[in-house]
Amino acid sequence: MDSLRVFKDCYKKMNDIDWIxxxxxxxxxxxxxxxxxxxxxxxxxxxxxxxxEACYIPYHLKEVNWNEKPNGDGEWTYMxxxxxxxxxxxxxxxxxxxNKYLEKIKEFILGWINKNSISTKENKGAWRTIDTGIxxxxxxxxxxxxxxxxxxxxxxxxxxxxxxxxxTNYLKNNYIDKHTLSNWGVLQLxxxxxxxxxxxxxxxxxxxxxxxxxxEKQLNLQFYNDGYHWEQSPLYHFEVIMxxxxxxxxxxxxxxxxxxxxxxxxxxxxxxxxYMQSLNEKLVPLHDSDNVNVTNAIFILKLLxxxxxxxxxxxxxGKSSGNYIYKDxxxxxxxxxxxxxxxxxxxxxxxxxxxxxxxxxxxxxxxxRFTYMDNSPIRSFLKSSYAHNNIxxxxxxxxxxxxxxxYSRVGEPIATKVxxxxxxxVVKVIYGGKDKDNLNYTIKRLFxxxxxxxxxxxxxxxxxxxxxxxxxRFQLHPQVxxxxxxxxxxxxxxxxxxxxxxxxxxxxxxxxxxxxxxYNQLSNADKIIYKDNFTDxxxxxxxxxxxxxxxxxxxxxxxNSRTEILDRYYFGFDIYDNNDKKIMDxxxxxxxxxxxxxxxxxxxxxxxxxxxxxxxxxx
Length: 619
Fold this sequence. Notes:
By secondary structure, the chain is α+β, with helices and mostly antiparallel strands.
């Protein structure tokens, strides 16, 4: 019997339904061949968008040592042992039909087996369970692409099958309950099950049943009801659903029956990927994620009919996960807001954080992750509140990061209120923490987007008894050029303007900082920081738009009174365009009235309720 029969059957079917040609059209063939030629000389470059710990610096290994750590980061070793580079060699062969790429695939697989036949203390960098699962997936995917032409002797096939048996046994014997909640668990089991598609006698029937039942349990557990992965990282969300999607793809290509309803389990998580991709087709770098192009991954999901461009509303209301995303491709406006549990160690100190994109560019962004090394002050800083677009009171953030993976304290997402119609999108997030005196404080951020005017207003409310200092931070993308203008800043990327407008430039400064768009990379960037002192309570307003604006505060009185009331009871402002034409008025009431009339008046406008915009009562 042909040991590669299932591979060849899948390859034939991929050609029959034009899978390979479809995927080929998405590849940067020049770059694929460049990387494959580097690999022929044992030069490794990890720059695939879904390389979890990318390294854009190429490293040469004279002789491949699978426990090598050339940059001092153990994550490089883990990337090496995932063998994602085999796919580049496979695609290079598909493009050129040159046998040197096939020979290198054999050399890497058989070389790894020769030096890592079993797990030992000396080669533990090659045998982490997550990397073993990913490696098995990549071996199967690579062989599926070259199975028609690769020449393997009976002894080589025997060695591969024995190694597959050893690796799958290792995964089964080292599976722990903790991984049922982790991306680790999914990436282990998808590789485990992928092997059995092609080498059908690798797993016992009981082990196969266990793996599918556990995978089903993982997917039911790990995704919130809204489809967002609990670890709160778009990158790891993609890792989980893509590993499952490749498994589903080869199950279907091999005409096997899947004992669990994978399509249904992947339906919501795949749907969410549309919102995780910004206007420039890059991944939104929330929490531990990179700002990289994920078009190829989205394309695979489309080929599998897991996503459909025609079904997406503009607003994603992630009530369970705490992620609220507005994506309007026609208006070229995108923003995301976070007010949820921080998830796993991949979560950042980002309650109340938001990102903003316009045209084809990102303007206000997350700061990224840079490294997972536990002793890195850069890692700690990038996870902290100081590296996010949120609010800090008295230099005492609600969440304290402890090195790379732990926290000394976390804030509490209290509530979120949303409203969306043909004119407005409103998201109000409320969260809290402890101040320097261990007293509770509350922060409310109201994001009001006027769809007609394409204006995002941010109303920030701080409620903390006593005298305090506040910092409101806005982290800019490295490409943004910043110019100070009246009552704000002009932010430009590629001559595309976005205006950041406040009531005053007083206490607002631009500071230099750095962010990490991709793992192992740092870039210089600017940050807008607003500082102020307040007692007990204060409201702050910032407006983001594509046209130049200015703001004017409204005078508001309580019915039958001539005295202007406190901002906490009613706060109003007008937005004017550059021609002094009023285009919006906004009235917000933070505190309920319990003394005197509940009717308020501003320039013959009668007011009641929490939020009124241009005469429209929203809350």
